[in-house]
Write a structure and sequence with these properties.
Blueprint lengths: L1 H13 L4 E4 L10 E9 L3 E3 L1 E11 L8 E10 L2 E4 L10 E2 L2 H11 L4 H4 L12 E12 L12 E11 L2 E14 L9
Parallel strand pairs: 3-10
Antiparallel strand pairs: 1-10, 2-4, 4-8, 5-6, 5-7, 5-9, 9-10
Bound molecules: 2-acetamido-2-deoxy-beta-D-glucopyranose (NAG).
The site of 2-acetamido-2-deoxy-beta-D-glucopyranose has 5 residues, from β4.
């Protein structure tokens, strides 16, 4: 089993590219948010570590506590996409009030400077505006002990923003993550 995992690791390491798409369904007449350009480097992203993220898009519609989020996360395991369950708010989780998470920034008054310096808010509500975050460095200093399963591998994540029954924003990304400091796959 471990030998297979290791082999797969070699395979996955060779296709280390990040792909993304905006996945708002064509049936959504009025999306709240769309993305036109997203970049993430390095590939694979190394955690803990520094990563560079750039985002361009548009917020078309005011939103706040009227939206919820559904996140679907899968990991490639032996060539099969396997659902990563929700654990301590990471994985395939439903967030009934995503604003609640962001309110931590409000309480501590520490919106990441990479965002504020480009005029981007980090707490609800969000107002119509263009999103223009040039490639900026974000540091993940450590991984919560409860997220140790977030090991090296290829992941795909789809985040849907939902208002009523409509998906009003949707982002899909597929990327490789590498855990730093450990022996890669058998980390743990
Ligand atoms: C991120 O980069 C800074 C500056 O190079 C460095 O001091 C820091 O240790 C890096 N963080 C991690 C988690 O590697």
């Amino acid at each position: 089993m471990k030998a297979f995992v290791l082999l797969l690791g070699v395979f996955v390491a060779c296709e280390a590219s990040m792909t993304w798409k905006d996945c708002v369904p064509a049936t959504t007449a009025h999306p709240y948010v769309t993305f036109t350009s997203v970049s993430v480097s390095p590939s694979p992203v190394v955690l803990p570590g520094n990563m560079t993220i750039g985002v361009q898009g548009t917020v078309y519609h005011h939103f706040g506590t009227d939206v919820r989020m559904v996140v679907k996360m899968d990991k490639l395991l032996l060539g099969q996409w396997t659902k990563v369950p929700c654990s301590q708010n990471v994985g395939s989780c439903n967030y009934d009030n995503p604003c609640e998470f962001l309110s931590a920034f409000k309480t501590s008054g520490t919106c990441p400077p990479q965002l504020t310096s480009h005029g981007l808010p980090c707490t609800c509500p969000f107002n119509p505006s263009s999103i223009n975050l040039p490639p900026s460095v974000f540091e993940v200093a450590q991984i919560n002990a409860a997220w140790q399963w977030l090991a090296t591998g290829r992941f795909r994540v789809q985040a849907e923003m939902i208002h009523g029954h409509d998906i009003v924003g949707c982002f899909h990304v597929e990327m490789d993550i590498k855990r730093s400091g450990g022996g890669g796959f058998l980390f743990g």
